[in-house]
Amino acid sequence: MSRDLVHVAVGVLRRAGEILLTRRLAGTHLAGCWEFPGGKFEPGEMPEQALARELREELGIEVVTTQSLIRHRHPYPTRDVVLHTYEVTAWQGEPLGLQGQALRWLPAERIDPADLPPADGPLLSAARLPDVYAISGDFSDQADCLRRVERLIAGGVRLLCLRCPDLDAGTYRALAAAVLARARPVGMQVLLHGAADWLTELAAELGAGRHLPARAVAAVGQRPLPPGAWCAASCHDATELAHAARIGCDFAVLSPVAVTASHPDRPALGWARFAALVEGAALPVFALGGMQPQQARAAREHGGQGVAVMRGLWDPAGG
Ligand SMILES: Nc1nc2c([nH]c(=O)n2[C@@H]2O[C@H](COP(=O)(O)OP(=O)(O)OP(=O)(O)O)[C@@H](O)[C@H]2O)c(=O)[nH]1
Ligand SMILES: [Mg+2]
Fold first, then answer.
1. What is the CATH classification number for the domain harbouring 47?
2. Facing residues of 105 across strands?
3. Residue whose CA is closest, atom 9 of ligand 1?
4. Is any ligand 1 atom within 6 A of the Cβ of residue 30?
5. 160 and 139 in a common domain
6. What is the ipTM of this complex?
């Protein structure tokens, strides 16, 4: 039996580091929840037209510019909802609760997912994530590693995967602790890469997240970290993306989008295939493989969260 499918346009409005939430009115689906403003498409409307009309009707503002953030589908008991989410990067007017709904501005990290509709988990992750995810290269020298981290921080990078596959556990622990001590005060979030179980305990101890290699994602039935700590997955196809979302990962990297120096003979997905895979994914997806930070916008235009960059950031002078 075919289910009802409802398309909804949703806006993320930011001001002084805070995001606008509005409260669903009594008598509506999910009454009392805090949500991102927006509403259902009317017949014949394009997503951005629906967004502009909804924000005019609900908040009395005029949308000036938008950037697509994430589109995902959520099965509610009575119908499926597709949320088309946009960053509203400029608008005119002061948002008001024109339908009597309460308004509230909150920093992204203080929004409690439990206050939002059940469909909003991926949307909140997307709103909290930047559009560049740096992935470290292999290294063993702590001073060199910290110099590279400093350079990333100075360049505005705020999400880092610490990937050191050849280090023993003791050296990795010391290195991760040193990186976190530097990253925490500036709000850079760090994910520990690897399949080993001890990484979960280390992540909890240091206030870090975990990034699971594809083989580790396939092997687990549930994310290894509690909500609130980032849990990311490496994926290469639709099956892996679906599994990553099912086990509760917050975001994924999908590769290889372009041909890379490290795997020149591996066929690249290209942007069209990337977009098709992201379209079906229920979590934010970064493009990985041959990416440079300035391609974040292209990734966004193809439905992605942004780019995951290895060489281009960690080792920009390298080959
Ligand atoms: N606006 C909005 N809707 C959401 C969010 N999350 C989510 O699951 N939804 C669902 O998407 C649908 C949007 O419906 P809506 O009630 O806002 O639609 P609308 O503004 O056109 O209202 P109307 O139908 O009373 O005219 C609802 O089923 C709602 O529960 C969200 O963050 N914002
Ligand atoms: Mg609405």
1. 3.90.79.10
2. 20
3. 117
4. yes
5. yes
6. 0.95
